[in-house]
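TASK: fixed-backbone design
INPUT:
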C-alpha cells in the first residue's frame, strides 16, 4: 500500500493553519534543548540542592528514561484521542513539570518533576510528527519535515549554549522557567492547530501500545533503524567528544565548544538542503540519502581516530563535518517517509515506535560508550586518577587516547553491521521502484 492510498483512508484532512509549523516547531525545539542542555546546570544544582551523584544524574536520566518509555504509549494513545490533543496535553505536562523543577527545594522532587517533564516531551513528539504527517502533503510535507529535522538539530546543538547562558544570567532555575514559558504558550496556541479525528478511523478497534506488526513493513523497519545508526555514530560523540578534546588535547571547555561547531553546523543545514534536492533532483531518493548518511557516519568515525595529543586538531575537522552530515541528512526525511508507508490511522503508533528506537538507542548507547571507555581507562589507572581521566580531566592523554580509540573502533564495528542490516532490509529497493516522487505530491520516493 502506498502513502497515497494510506492518505485516502483517512478521509479529508483539515488544512494546516499558518500557525501550525511555528507552534509545533517552537515546542519541539525545547525538547532536544532540554536533553542536551540540562547537564550544564548540574554543577550549580549540586551547589544549591546537594552533591548526591546518583540523584544529580537522574535530573538528566529521569527525563531521558521517561521520554523513551512513554513515547510508545503516547503514540498509540494519539491514534485514539487525536494528534492535536496529544500535542496539547504534552505541552501542558511539560510546562507543569518545568515549573515544579524550577521551584524544587530538593533533588528528589527535582528528579520526580523531570520525569514528569519527560512524559510530556514524549507526547509532544508523538503528536507533532503525526500532526505534520497528516496535515501536509507533497512538497509542503517534505519541507515541513525538513524544518522539523532542522529544529531538532538546532535544539540539540544550541541546548548547552542557551542553558549555559541562562545559568550564568539567572541561575539554574531560570533554565526550567524559560522552558515552562515556551511550552505554556505552545499549549495555549495549540487551539489553532488542525484537529485530526483519528479515533473515527479505528472503527472501534484499540491499537496496541507496542504494535510490532508495523515492523513487518521492511521500509518502516529500515527507517526505524536509521536513527539507531545516528545514535551510534553521532550522539555518543556529541556527548563525549568534548571530554576527549579535554583529556587528549587539554582543550578548555570554551575552545572545545567552538570546535564542536564543526559537528553541529552540518546538522542544521543538511535537512533543508536534502528537502531542496528531493524537490528538484529526481535521482535523489530516500534510499540514496540514507546510504549517504551511513557512509558519512562510518567515514567520520574512522577519521575521528586521528585525534591525538601530538597531532593538530585540524586533522579531525573534516571527520567531524562528516559526522554532522551523517546525522543531519536523514533527520525529518526519515520521520516523514516512515509515517507515509504505514496506514494513516496508525501514524501515532508508528511515530511512537520510531521514536522509541531513536530515543531508546540514544540512552543505551551513550551509557554504553561511557561504560566501555571508563572500563578501559580502569585497566590502566586506579582510584581518583582513573575517575578523573575517564571524566576527561587533562593529565593522562596517552591513557585517554587508548581508551578513546578502542571505543571508537567498537562504534565503527556496530555501524558497519547496522548499515549492512539496513541495506539488506531495504532489499533491492523494490519498494521504491514503483513509487513516484513524494516531493511532487505522489507517494514516497524510496
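OUTPUT:
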Amino acid at each position: 500500500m502506498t502513502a497515497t492510498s494510506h492518505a485516502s483512508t483517512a478521509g479529508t484532512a483539515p488544512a494546516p493553519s499558518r500557525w501550525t509549523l511555528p507552534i509545533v516547531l517552537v515546542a519541539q525545539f525545547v525538547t532536544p534543548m532540554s536533553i542536551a542542555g540540562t547537564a550544564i546546570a548540574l554543577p550549580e544544582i549540586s551547589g544549591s540542592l546537594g552533591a548526591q551523584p546518583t540523584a544529580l544524574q537522574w535530573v538528566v536520566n529521569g527525563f531521558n528514561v521517561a521520554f523513551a518509555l512513554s513515547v510508545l504509549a503516547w503514540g498509540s494513545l494519539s491514534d485514539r484521542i487525536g494528534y492535536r490533543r496529544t500535542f496539547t496535553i504534552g505541552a501542558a505536562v511539560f510546562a507543569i513539570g518545568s515549573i515544579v523543577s524550577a521551584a524544587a527545594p530538593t533533588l528528589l522532587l527535582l528528579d520526580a518533576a523531570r520525569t514528569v517533564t519527560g512524559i510530556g516531551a514524549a507526547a509532544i513528539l508523538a503528536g507533532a510528527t503525526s500532526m505534520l504527517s497528516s496535515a501536509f502533503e507533497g512538497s509542503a510535507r517534505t519541507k515541513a519535515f525538513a524544518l522539523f529535522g532542522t529544529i531538532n538539530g538546532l535544539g540539540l546543538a544550541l541546548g548547552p549554549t542557551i542553558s549555559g547562558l541562562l545559568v550564568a544570567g539567572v541561575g539554574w532555575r531560570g533554565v526550567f522557567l524559560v522552558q515552562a514559558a515556551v511550552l505554556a504558550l505552545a499549549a495555549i496556541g495549540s487551539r489553532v492547530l488542525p484537529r485530526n479525528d483519528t479515533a473515527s478511523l479505528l472503527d472501534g478497534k484499540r491499537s496496541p501500545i507496542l504494535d510490532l506488526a508495523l515492523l513487518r513493513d521492511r521500509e518502516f523497519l529500515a527507517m526505524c533503524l536509521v536513527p539507531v545508526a545516528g545514535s551510534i555514530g553521532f550522539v555518543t560523540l556529541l556527548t563525549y567528544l568534548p571530554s576527549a578534546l579535554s583529556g587528549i588535547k587539554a582543550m578548555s571547555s570554551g575552545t572545545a565548544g567552538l570546535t564542536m561547531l564543526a559537528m553541529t553546523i552540518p546538522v542544521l543545514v543538511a535537512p533543508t538542503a536534502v528537502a531542496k534536492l528531493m524537490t528538484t533532483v529526481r535521482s535523489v531518493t530516500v534510499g540514496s540519502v540514507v546510504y549517504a548518511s551511513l557512509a558519512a557516519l562510518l567515514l567520520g568515525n574512522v577519521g575521528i581516530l586521528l585525534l591525538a595529543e601530538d597531532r593538530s586538531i585540524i586533522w579531525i575537522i573534516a571527520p567531524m563535518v562528516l559526522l554532522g552530515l551523517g546525522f543531519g541528512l536523514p533527520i525529518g526525511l526519515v520521520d516523514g517517509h516512515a509515517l507515509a508507508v504505514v496506514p494513516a490511522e496508525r501514524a501515532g503508533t508508528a511515530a511512537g515506535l520510531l521514536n522509541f528506537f531513536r530515543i531508546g538507542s540514544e540512552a543505551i548507547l551513550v551509557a554504553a560508550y561511557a561504560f566501555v571507555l571508563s572500563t578501559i581507562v580502569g585497566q590502566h589507572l586506579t582510584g581518583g586518577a582513573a575517575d578523573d581521566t575517564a571524566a576527561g580531566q587533562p593529565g593522562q592523554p596517552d591513557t585517554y587516547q587508548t581508551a578513546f580509540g578502542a571505543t571508537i573502533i567498537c562504534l565503527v564495528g556496530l555501524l558497519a553491521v547496522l548499515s549492512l542490516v539496513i541495506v539488506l532490509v531495504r532489499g533491492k529497493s523494490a519498494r521504491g521502484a514503483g513509487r513516484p516522487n513524494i516531493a511532487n505530491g505522489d507517494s514516497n520516493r524510496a
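COMMENT: Confidence is low (pLDDT under 50) at residues 1-12, 199-204, 429-444.
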